[in-house]
Design goal:
- The protein has no helices and 29 strands.
- The strands form 7 sheets. The chain has a 5-stranded antiparallel beta sheet, with no helix packed on it.
- The protein is mostly beta strands and about 325 residues long.
- It has one domain: YVTN repeat-like/Quinoprotein amine dehydrogenase (Methylamine Dehydrogenase, Chain H).
Amino acid sequence: MKEVTFPKLKLSLSFVVIVLSVITCSNEEVIVGNGATTYEFNAVTQNSGTTMDLLDIFFTDARNGWAVGDSGTILHTSDGGANWTPQSSATLKVLHGVSFINADTGWVAGEGGTVLHTFDGGDTWQDQSPGGVDLTDVTFFDSFRGWAVGNKVILKTTNNGKAWDTTAADDWLFGVSFPDENNGWAVGHRGIILRTNNGGRSWISQGSNALNPLLDVTFIDLNNGWVVGVDGTFILHTSDGGANWSKQDSRANEVLRGVAFGDSQIGIAVGDSGTTRTTLDGGKTWTVEPRVVTGTLRKVAFGDADNIWIAGDNGVILKMTRVEVKGSGK
């Protein structure tokens, strides 16, 4: 049976921690096309300055980003990852999720119900922890409305994180995505997908036909979303708000842990053993990218349509750049 480490605690089907190693950057380029235009994705490693496992990453634009992980690790860059600077979180708790609404205002969430908030780009962090169970992901729509998910729980705030309302869930939830203030999706253990259309006041279950844990979800609008998980051979996609989910061939055998889209066409999924897949057609086809590392890649974030960052174990941060190599005759 394949070993699986869930975001982080470190939950595992066999409770085994996988030790990871980083290899040197590959200079190999993969050329993929979307018909009229051809692109290549170039991946390079960035010096994070840490060996701590990094469990989530978020960019507000092509320059400003944060990565979080083990032992209260928070890293910040203001130059697109050329330099990463540690920020003091004042906690040793594992931080699983990070979300910013602009370059100044953001939140992180993690172990033991930890929630931290910053008004100044992470120079200082304020404790807003409701306590309780472990939280595995967090997202904010604006400076007031945000959601966090975790061990059989969904948290909601409408006042900047000062107070949190709690909704019980039937099982572990590992990922959450809100494309607007009312519509959101959460995914988790045993293939669960939950949907809300009232800002999280109530949730309904959507059938995914998946049996294994789903680890991450992203929606770019009210209709189009993607989900990845333990069964890495496919990526789930919906074009009708989750009323129906179809399988896209990921061309992978490894667990897929993170997924992100820059728009309706350009997306990336990452996972175990350095697995990276890219798409230029909304997931109809997924391209196998060269492995730049051999360890687990956890989460991925777009700075813009051309710049992508990936966070992984052992302090790994990768930057992928999409470069146009042939125009469309204009």
